[in-house]
Design a protein that fits this description.
The complex is a heterodimer. Chain A is mostly helical. Chain A is built from eleven helices and two strands. Chain A is 68% helix and 2% strand. In chain A, strand 1 and strand 2 form a beta hairpin. Chain B is of the alpha+beta class. In chain B, a hairpin with a 2-residue loop joins strand 17 and strand 18. The chains are: A mainly alpha, B alpha+beta.
Chain lengths: 304, 359
């Protein structure tokens, strides 16, 4: 006779097998092979039989000069771009997301319209929204420049997406437009779960709209906001499609992923590109661990 | 200090008319209990006084001032909620200090008032804990403490004890009564528990489907219910009701039939009734006389015996009409025994066909 807990453990194991196999083959295998590739001199010609070269793709001193990913200023530039993009886009998305969520809470006849309007940008594929903004911001025929010229703010059209001063700002705004709805949904769920009596107790205690939000609502939806930041943060650190679509070649907005892709598939430096990818994974991992530790998100169950 | 006047107030939720022309005068410093079954409108009434619910028509005034359009914070009230509604992210101290903080009181005053309330409620040791680290009874004290610190004119309680276990409920009930004596504030208390109503109230307001069924002191309601609803609602176990018929009327009493087994002259009158009318006779279990002499009586078999130690309840049945009778704790009566049940005429109530009591 097996005890109930033994049977339960065995059942759990059986259910875990499929997902374990899928994870091993789809995540662990590529991770390890990338790691291996980054330690080789793999290029297009010798891709199947690369030579082990140690860490020279990461860093190497050759006749007094430093080489490798870690010595490439363009790589660090892409790291900086990625961090700037992540910090500013998420800040904007959290502010907009909370605002949208609060607007979605308003009960009136237009609420279905408001909810749809908030969610539509999230449903549009990135390629469509990127092209849409590109056209609107186009220097000669774009409606944005047309309006600014009409208002007398600009003399002539500005190439917002390629201008080094504005391209990062444009990308952050497009991303915020596109993904604020995601933050809004998470925050909205958090707001819906707020205990009504607690808000009423606040009213009796004398809160107005602002103090109610500041002292009661915001602290209580912080866990939901933290979850949104983790999801959005991991997405933003891996940002590729939007930047690639708007301007793949510009070093002003090049992200880590765009850098790694360029090394691998444009220059065929597979080993070097793999090293860049490995660095990317490491950097994201470290940031994620620090953030989760700091917000104590892994202890969310113990919070209330 | 803070009389509360409710004047022909109506409240609709959509098409549902939940409060129907209710008028109430609540005296300053009194302890008034709104009681009634679920859906009678008692919580809605309280929430309208609190300012958490709009009023469709009529006026509510506190201390002579109409407060219909004032937000809760300007009504000088404090409220204790059924779910305690503590701020989960704040310590006990901060929970109790929150209202004062919003009023921009000085740090010293906040400290003093919170510590004073904590002392009264004996929660000084938990001031730095979060609500989730407290038991239900402790949370309830904090909720009451939060109300006390603000020194309001009116305390509103919305079923504050219904989430507590039975023993704690009795204890908190006593403490609430004590608190009322100490604070001299007007208290309005909503409950569906008639025991809480009887034990705490100066005045009980019985609500039934949005109207005031009766208002009066606990014993007035117990002794002279206006109608069958109040008669049945106040008292535990419930008042017994049995169908009867008027046999004759005299100047000071009405003679009714007791299930064909005897007659009884109840010293109650109703001008609108006449001989032969069907009436309902009501009598409380504790007023029935088991195997003794009384003005009227009948006999029946016992089918359930409940021994509570101090008293014994006998569940009887006669021609499909159930009857509960109370007798002494160490009664020898067993299931299946036949007992004689006596009806003292002075303890009987009569209700006419529209459920109104004879006076």
């Amino acid at each position: 006779m097996k005890s109930v807990s033994q049977i339960r453990k065995r059942t759990a194991l059986i259910f875990l097998i499929p997902v374990t196999i899928i994870l091993l083959s789809s995540a662990l295998y590529p991770l390890i092979s990338t790691l291996y590739l980054s330690l080789t001199d793999a290029e297009l010609e010798n891709f199947l039989n690369p030579n082990y070269v140690g860490f020279i793709n990461y860093i190497e001193n050759y006749e007094g000069m430093w080489y490798g990913v870690l010595a490439d200023s363009l790589f660090w530039n892409s790291v900086r771009n990625t961090l700037v993009f992540t910090i500013f886009s998420i800040s904007l998305e959290v502010v907009l997301g909370i605002s949208f969520a609060l607007i979605m809470l308003i009960e009136n006849k237009l609420k279905w319209f408001v909810r749809a309007a908030v969610l539509i940008p999230w449903a549009i594929p990135t390629i469509v929204s990127a092209r849409m903004f590109e056209w609107m911001l186009q220097d000669q025929f774009g409606i944005f420049n047309y309006m600014l010229i009409g208002l007398g703010i600009l003399e002539q059209g500005k190439a917002w997406t390629t201008d080094p001063q504005t391209s990062m700002i444009v990308i952050i705004i497009i991303d915020a437009w596109k993904t604020s709805p995601f933050v809004a949904i998470l925050v909205y769920a958090g707001l819906k779960a707020l205990p009504n009596e607690v808000l009423e107790a606040g009213k009796v205690d004398g809160t107005n709209g602002i103090t109610q939000f500041y002292y009661i609502i915001f602290p209580l939806i912080l866990p939901a906001i933290a979850v949104a930041i983790v999801f959005r943060g991991l997405d933003a650190l891996r940002v590729f499609d939007l930047i690639y679509l708007i301007n793949a070649g510009s070093k002003d907005i090049m992200s880590m992923t765009v850098y790694a892709r360029r090394e691998m598939f444009e220059y065929s430096h597979f080993g070097f590109g793999a090293a860049a990818s490995t660095m990317l994974t490491l950097i994201i991992g470290v940031i994620a661990v620090i953030f989760i530790q700091r917000t104590r998100l892994h202890k969310l169950d113990e919070m209330e | 200090m803070a009389d509360i006047n409710v004047n022909t107030v109506n409240k609709y939720f959509g098409d549902v008319h939940v409060i129907k022309d209710i008028s109430l005068d609540i005296k300053s410093q009194s302890f008034t209990v709104l009681v009634g079954p679920s859906g009678c409108g008692k919580s809605t009434m309280l929430r309208m006084i609190a300012g958490l619910e709009d009023i469709n028509s009529g006026t509510i005034s506190i201390d002579g001032q109409v407060v219909n359009d004032l937000p809760p914070k300007q009504r000088n009230i404090a409220m204790v909620f059924q779910s305690y509604a503590l701020y989960p992210h704040m310590t006990v101290f901060d929970n109790m200090a929150f209202g004062l903080k919003l009023e921009k009181r000085s740090k010293d005053e906040i400290n003093e008032r919170v510590n004073e309330a904590a002392r009264i409620l004996q929660i000084e040791d938990y001031l730095l804990r979060k609500p989730k680290q407290l038991s239900g009874g402790q949370r309830q004290r904090v909720a009451i403490g939060r109300a006390i610190t603000r020194k309001p004119k009116v305390f509103l309680f919305d079923e504050p004890l219904s989430n507590l276990d039975a023993a704690l409920r009795v204890q908190m009930r006593v403490e609430l009564a004590k608190l009322h004596n100490e604070l001299d504030a007007t208290m309005i208390y909503v409950t569906h528990d008639q025991t809480e109503a009887m034990t705490l109230a100066d005045d009980i307001v019985v609500l039934d489907t949005g109207i005031v069924s009766q208002k009066g002191s606990p014993l007035e309601l117990y002794d002279k219910p206006n109608n069958m609803f109040v008669g049945g609602f106040i008292g535990s176990p419930k008042m017994n009701f049995m169908p009867s018929k008027i046999l004759s009327k005299s100047a000071d009493s009405t003679e009714v039939d007791l299930m064909g087994m005897s007659k009884i002259s109840v010293p109650k009158l109703s001008a609108s009734s006449s001989e032969g009318d069907a009436v309902t006779l009501g009598i409380r279990p504790e007023h029935l006389v088991v195997n003794g002499d009384a003005d009227g009586s009948w006999e029946s078999k016992v089918f359930v015996v409940e021994k509570l130690g101090d008293v014994t309840y006998l569940y009887l049945e006669k021609d499909g009409e159930p009857l509960v009778a109370e007798t002494e704790g160490h009664s020898e009566i067993k299931v299946g025994d036949s007992v004689k049940v006596g009806f003292p005429a002075g303890r009987c109530q009569l209700f006419d066909s529209s459920n109104q009591a004879f006076k």
